[in-house]
Amino acid sequence: MIGYLQCECVIYDAQSLKEKRAVLQRIITRLKQKYNISVAEIDYQDLWQRTKLGIVAITADRSATERELRFALQLIDSFPEIERTVTTFDWL
């Protein structure tokens, strides 16, 4: 089962694209190391305080895929410098 997740986030303390990318790099690296998922910034690359992440997980069954994606969201929420605003799930 393939699960696709999009989440829009706000990085309030970022004062430049460099600061934004530093925060995102930490989050994306940790997600890839900890979970069996693929992650990329898919929108708002040129805005300082806004981003949209695309996360994909592929497993044998839907419950395992959903569990991986939920763990990924919990990890994103654990970073105090970023706030998740809009999240959507899709199944393929």
How would you sum up this structure, described in words?
The chain is an alpha+beta fold and 92 residues long. It contains 2 helices and 4 strands; from the N terminus they run βαββαβ. It has helices spanning 17-34, 62-78; strands at residues 2-10, 38-43, 50-58, 83-91. The protein has a 4-stranded antiparallel sheet. A hairpin with a 6-residue loop joins strand 2 (38-43) and strand 3 (50-58). The chain is elongated and about 40 Å long. The relative contact order is 0.34. This is DUF503 family protein.
The N- and C-terminal alpha carbons lie at a distance of: 7 Å
Strand order of the largest sheet: 2-3-1-4
Q: Give the topology string: H per helix, E per strand.
A: EHEEHE
Instruction: Count every beta strand, where a strand is a DSSP E run of 2 or more residues.
Output: 4
Mean model confidence by pLDDT: 96
Report the sheet with the most strands, covering strand number, pairing sense and barrel closure.
4 strands, antiparallel
Which consecutive residue ranges, at least 5 long each, have pLDDT under 50?
A: none
How is the quaternary structure best described? single chain
**Helical proportion, percent range:** 25-40%
Organism: Anoxybacteroides rupiense
Protein name: DUF503 family protein
